[in-house]
Write a structure and sequence with these properties.
The complex is a heterodimer of chains A (about 325) and B (about 375). Chain A is an all-alpha fold. Helices cover about 75% and strands about 0% of the residues of chain A. In chain A, helix 3 runs antiparallel to helix 4, helix 4 packs antiparallel against helix 7 and helix 6 crosses helix 7. The chains are: A mainly alpha (about 325), B alpha/beta (about 375).
Chain lengths: ~325, ~375
């Protein structure tokens, strides 16, 4: 870590401490400092986990201020109890929103489709519009593609996008139910518990405990399983569709498609397996010993003797 | 609200302390250039495609403390899962099952499956078990001059080891399963529950090899809040000193070191094991042969984590119902799926128990 970086961080910490001491209306630009931290630590050659962890730590400081400040302000007011209750409601709302974003992060719209929609200047809300089909058809119209084929592809893309949208909503509603349950049970705990949480950290740990408890209850339901399966499959279908489009473009350009390459790999694998099976069969065949050969030879001689034609009788001649 | 008692000054102090801890964490991280894992010296005695078979010997590990245990003549082969990397058994010198077993006189081999790439997408369970694992067992046997060997399978590697022992019972002297799923459809198995409606054919058709990051997402979905934001908030506490940070980083490195999964093997494993639970039904077919767990007659030690959220105890403990071993022992360990390898208490229990169990059956 360079001295410059350390100095920058010290300055930032001082600013933060001063800000928290005064809690003035405007915060110093934390983002600038953390951006600098990234560039100081960034090394594209580095595959170690430090970079990812630095990113997570940097994210924390923003969230920390965002979450802590309202609590601090509420506690300064004359009617702190009422203000605190309101802040807790807002805080829970933020946590629920965050839970939804985190839960759906693995299923964001595949990049290929984001680009597609952007290229058509469409947003997701326009998907039901009939004109979208025409716009998408034009996008799929590449040299060598018949107009009806482009239209069919556009229709498929739309169907897949709609299914994805619905699946995402379906899954989000399950996550929403989890966070609702967690929030309401946490509020109940905060109202009734005899052992109070005395720090923001403890309060957050309580949220985590309640969320995980609610999650396990909901996640084991058939409805959650179905929603999880549906979004997984809808997301994969979109990915596969994008791949097939790319394959078609590769073939148009006279290049081998992914499917063709896969077929070659499949054939090579089958061949390798057959070789292995032959080798195994060979090692399992009992070795032919000399005794076996001698016995087989004797048996062969005996058979030959049996079938050898009798010596022709003298005086009989073959006809010419 | 009785359940909350906050004070403005304390909140301010808490935030400031957390900020200081964040800065310290960044400084500690900045001073660490590389994170070494799996450092116990070993010899590669066999390779095939991307697979490596490693041999750890006492001679090559002079730093391993000299043990007083009588040792074992029969070598032990560790078969790890295809997911994640096998160096979790040798994360660092202090947390190394490898070092501990060496100290206890176990002649040790470790199967490293490597990182499958697109050329391996058609590898199936027949390849992994009848070819790769079988060859490794033969190589260990040859290298150690022992007709039969001991096999220790971890997680999915444990399931593979069960299949292998059922298919080649004459090659395995003693079998140890560690955090190994046997019954894949118990009511508390969330991973299995969430896998039921995922279209595996579509997944393999789409990706070829299944990306390791997808599996990481699936594991995170088992405890999303605890493994997400809470873990992040507690990070500064793990990064306050260089040695603590290194421990944390080694674990992080391992967690995110997720090889892609060969598509065909993944398809078969998810469908046959997770979705149809065929292992306990005696319906798994590998390379044309049916896997019959009742063929397992050898002594079996079944170790599971009492707090394992990935392979709950209920998935491991039914094993004796399906095998024919008269010598069976279950060893519950008060740890989770990963803590069983890296937790200090678990480490102190695990290696000595394994070594003693093997020594008693080393006639």
């Amino acid at each position: 870590m360079t001295d410059d970086f350390r100095t920058l961080m010290d300055q930032w910490l001082e600013q933060q401490q001063a800000w928290w001491a005064q809690l003035s209306a405007t915060a110093p630009s934390t983002q600038k400092v953390w951006d600098s931290l990234f560039s100081a630590a960034a090394n594209p050659q580095n595959t170690e986990p430090q970079q990812r962890i630095l990113a997570q730590l940097a994210g924390q400081i923003l969230i920390l201020n965002q979450h802590a400040e309202p609590f601090f302000k509420a506690l300064q007011t004359a009617d702190a109890g009422v203000a605190l209750a309101e802040v807790i409601q807002q805080w829970l709302h933020m946590l629920q929103q965050q839970a939804g974003e985190d839960a759906t992060a693995p299923w964001t719209l595949p990049k290929a489709f984001v680009s597609l929609l952007q290229a058509a200047q469409l947003d997701e809300s326009q998907l039901l519009d009939g004109a979208v089909l025409e716009t998408l058809s034009r996008l799929f119209a590449t040299p060598g593609t018949a107009p009806e084929q482009a239209r069919a592809q556009a229709r498929d893309a739309l169907q897949l996008l709609l299914e994805y949208q619905q699946a995402l909503q379906h899954y989000l509603s399950q996550i929403h139910a989890v966070s609702q349950q967690a929030a309401s049970e946490l509020l109940e705990t905060l109202h009734n518990s005899d052992t109070p949480a005395t720090s923001l950290g403890a309060l957050h740990d309580l949220w985590v405990d309640h969320y995980e408890h609610a999650y396990r209850q909901q996640a084991f339901s058939d409805a959650f399983q179905a929603a999880h399966g549906r979004i997984s499959n809808a997301h994969m279908r979109l990915q596969r569709f994008a791949q097939r489009l790319r394959d078609a473009q590769l073939q148009t350009a006279g290049l081998a498609s992914q499917q063709q390459v896969q077929q070659l790999r499949r054939d090579a694998h089958l061949l390798r397996k057959q070789v292995r099976q032959l080798q195994q069969a060979q090692t399992q065949t009992p070795p032919v010993t000399e005794a076996t050969v001698a016995a087989l030879r004797a048996e062969l001689d005996a058979l030959r003797n049996d079938i050898r034609p009798a010596t022709p009788k003298p005086g009989r001649k073959r006809k010419a | 609200m009785n359940g909350i008692k906050l004070d403005g000054d304390r909140v301010r102090e808490e935030v400031q302390a957390h900020q200081r801890a964040l800065i310290d964490s960044c400084e500690t991280l900045g001073e660490i250039q590389s994170v070494e894992v799996g450092t116990s010296p070993c010899e590669v005695i066999y390779t095939q495609d991307k697979l490596k078979l490693l041999h750890y010997s006492r001679a090559a590990n002079p730093d391993a403390p000299e043990g007083t245990a009588p040792g074992c003549n029969t070598p032990l082969l560790i078969c790890y899962a295809l997911v994640n990397r096998p160096y979790v058994v040798d994360l660092d010198k202090r947390r190394s099952l490898v070092q501990k077993l060496l100290t206890l006189g176990i002649d040790l081999y470790l199967l490293d499956w490597g990182y499958p790439d697109a050329d391996d997408s058609h590898l199936d369970l027949d390849d992994y078990i009848n070819d790769y694992l079988n060859n490794c067992v033969d190589q260990v046997s040859l290298h150690s001059s022992q007709a039969r060997i001991n096999l220790l399978g971890i997680c999915q590697g444990g399931t593979f080891s069960l299949c292998y022992s059922a298919l080649y019972p004459h090659k395995i002297k003693n079998l140890i399963t560690l955090v190994t799923p046997v019954d894949f459809k118990t009511p508390d198995n969330l991973l299995s529950h969430l896998a039921q409606q995922v279209d595996v054919d579509l997944a393999v058709d789409t990706y070829g090899n299944i990306p390791g990051s997808m599996l990481n997402d699936a594991y995170k979905a088992l405890m999303p809040m605890r493994l997400g934001i809470q873990k992040q908030l507690h990070m500064p506490a793990q990064l306050q000193s260089r040695s603590k940070a290194l421990n944390f980083l080694r674990m992080e490195k391992w967690i995110h070191d997720s090889p892609d999964q060969a598509g065909e093997a993944f398809r078969q494993f998810i469908k046959d094991f997770f979705q149809y639970n065929k292992l306990i039904l005696g319906q798994v077919i590998i390379g044309g042969q049916t896997v019959k767990l009742e063929n397992i007659h050898q002594p079996v030690l079944n170790i599971y984590g009492e707090q394992d959220h990935l392979v709950p105890p209920s998935a491991s403990t039914p094993l004796p119902q399906y095998i024919s071993s008269s010598d069976y022992e279950a060893l519950p360990v008060a740890a989770g799926h990963i803590g069983i390898f890296v937790g200090q208490r678990a480490q102190n229990l695990l290696a000595p128990h394994i070594a003693q169990w093997l020594q008693r059956r080393d006639d």
